[in-house]
Specification:
The complex is a heterodimer of chains A (255) and B (249). Chain A is α/β, with parallel strands linked by helices. Chain A is built from nine helices and nine strands. Classes of the chains: A alpha/beta (255), B mainly alpha (249).
């Protein structure tokens, strides 16, 4: 993200925004809004003045400052010095700054880190609403459960290499299967023989990968197997992520 | 000035005026200037009236006393620049600035455009107030002759030194580093060079600035003194622009 914004120079290649280098954009705040570090403000300056300076430098009308403060719900605290803000308030100020130029592309680096549950929820729904307005929202996070709830499209990068580039639904569904539990061991074995993706994970349970719950249920009915449980299992994003990045972790702990 | 540069300068003006360190250092500079001028005025009057004859220097101008006092007062004034820019590196606000204005040279130029006039006015005012503080204490040994010219000169020197300081902060990116460098450049090196009796001292910004502000024509005319300081500002700025482009933020 820092390379996209021209803050760090890439060792090789280039990062473009809409086909151009960031520093070639005439009024970059109007095209790309980015929040890298919510705490990166002068603690002695008020939130409003922080935004005012950015707006003036970025060619954004001054009236926009009040608007974005309203959008993120920070109007009341806007005239307090930024050093007195809680992390959640700093995050809101950062998001307000990213929205200043009403840009079509938004970048957020770990936007929910360190926030309380209310804050996490607010950021999640707010980012979804920004995407719903037709903006492109790029989010980086190490919180997999959070990404599963927030993101549509997923890019996994490990050690600088692209490991996956797909939708969240697809990424997770690759690990989908059906878990069958039954007191009837013989029946369960018979069921297992008819399903290629089946393996017995524990006594009385069968895990069938890559099958729909309807087909497994129907087959059990045909064979007359008594069932106690029939559930769809989806691998969590975190599980999939660990599988995928298992070999490309830079500072892994040896098991 | 194109629209982007004008916008960048407007943003920098807002940044400079919305932090308290700016106002505190300005207030501090006025206090230091007035006190130093008062002290130097008393000493001057005393030297002329005591029993010793070898330290008598006769009538002086209040502006000359102010120029003398400014060798101290300038540090407080220049601290304004140091605190302004080094804080942006310390708290990371610099990344927001480069997000809004990605061309590094434009940010530098915008800051210099804001600093120049601010430092000019501040320097000129310091000269006038310092002179007014020392004038009553000089009594018959002081005049206000040439005060307008003296204050304009101090303003000009302050503006150019403001840019030198700006460059030093961008080169060193820390308040302690920049202030130390400033002290070494303006005080330590000139003293060493004068001890060594080399003419090297004449090329240093504080020495050249003194020649310019006091209007003595030794070792070169005042205008050359100003030119030397401007030369330092240009050289330091080139260095700062180079590292600004090269370094990651």
């Amino acid at each position: 993200m820092r390379m996209v914004l021209g803050l760090d120079a890439p060792t090789r290649g280039s990062a473009l925004v809409g086909g151009r280098l960031y520093r070639e954009l005439k009024w970059p705040l109007r095209e790309v809004g980015a929040l890298l570090d919510a705490r990166a403000v002068h603690p002695g300056r008020t939130g409003r003045n922080h935004l005012k300076a950015l707006a003036r430098a970025g060619g954004v009308p001054a009236g926009r400052v009040g608007e974005v403060l309203e959008i993120v719900g920070l109007s009341k605290a806007a005239d307090r010095r930024a050093g007195t803000y809680s992390l959640g308030m700093s995050q809101r100020l950062g998001i307000a700054a990213a929205l200043l130029g009403d840009p079509g592309v938004l970048l957020f680096d770990e936007p929910v880190n360190g926030l309380d549950p209310d804050g996490v929820r607010w950021v999640r729904t707010f980012l979804r609403s920004l995407a719903a307005e037709g903006r492109t929202v790029l989010l980086s996070s190490h919180l997999m459960s959070e990404m599963q709830m927030t993101a549509d499209h997923l890019v996994v990068i490990g050690r600088g290499r692209l490991l996956a580039d797909t939708t969240v639904a697809e990424f997770v569904s690759e690990g989908r299967g059906v878990r069958v539990t039954s007191p009837d061991a013989a029946g369960l074995a018979a069921l297992g023989e008819r399903l290629p993706g089946a393996r017995s994970s524990a006594p009385g349970t069968l895990y069938v990968a890559g099958e729909s719950v309807e087909r497994v249920g129907d087959l059990a009915y045909q064979l007359g197997v008594r069932l106690h449980g029939l559930t769809v299992e989806e691998a969590s994003l975190e599980q999939k992520y660990m599988e995928l990045t298992g070999e490309s972790v830079e500072y892994g702990v040896g098991a | 000035m194109n629209a982007e540069l004008r916008a960048a300068a407007a943003g920098e003006w807002t940044r400079l005026t919305t932090i308290r360190s700016t106002w505190w250092t300005l207030a501090g500079a006025f206090v230091v200037m007035c006190l130093t001028c008062a002290q130097l005025g008393l000493i001057h009057a005393n030297d002329n009236t005591d029993d010793r004859l070898d330290n008598d220097s006769g009538v002086t101008t209040a502006g000359a006393i102010a120029a003398d006092a400014f060798s101290m007062g300038q540090f407080v004034l220049l601290a304004l620049v140091v605190l302004w820019v080094s804080a942006e590196y310390a708290n990371g606000n610099v990344r927001w600035i480069f997000q809004a204005v990605p061309v590094r040279g434009r940010v530098y130029l915008a800051k210099a455009l804001v600093l120049g006039p601010v430092m000019f006015v501040a320097g000129a005012l310091l000269c006038v107030l310092g002179a007014l503080a020392t004038y009553p204490l000089l009594g018959e040994w002081g005049t206000l002759d040439g005060l307008v010219g003296d204050s304009l000169a101090m303003g000009a020197y302050s503006a150019v030194m403001g840019v030198v300081t700006l460059a030093l902060v961008y080169l060193l990116r820390s308040a302690a580093g920049a202030l130390s460098a400033l002290f070494v450049l303006l005080v330590v090196v000139p003293v060493i060079a004068m001890e060594a009796e080399t003419s090297l001292a004449n090329g240093l910004p504080s020495v050249a600035g003194t020649v310019f502000m006091t209007g003595v024509s030794d070792p070169y005319p005042p205008a050359v003194g100003l030119a030397v300081v401007v030369g330092w500002a240009c050289a330091c700025s080139l260095g700062a622009l180079y590292v600004l482009r090269k370094r990651d933020v």
